[in-house]
Amino acid sequence: MEIEDVKISRKKPIYPVGPGLQKYLKFYQRDGKLPLSYKDLLNFQETVPVMDKFGNDTLWETPLYPPYVQDQLYDGLKIIYAKLKASGNTRIVQHKIIDRIEFCAFGNTRPFRIRIINRLNDVYDYFYIKQADASRIYGLELEEILSPNQVNYLVDRDTLIEEHIAGIPGDVFSQARMYTPDYNQTRIAKEFVKFNERCIISLLGDMRAYNFVMQITPDFDDFQFRIRAIDFDQQFYEGNPKVYMPQFFKENFPYVKLSMEYLTEKTVLQYQQEERSSIVHRVRSERHRIKDLRDASQVQQLSTEENIKTLREGYAKFYDNAAYLKCKTMTDIVELNVKNVIRSVQI
Question: Rounded CA gap, 205 and 203, in Å?
Answer without folding.
Answer: 6
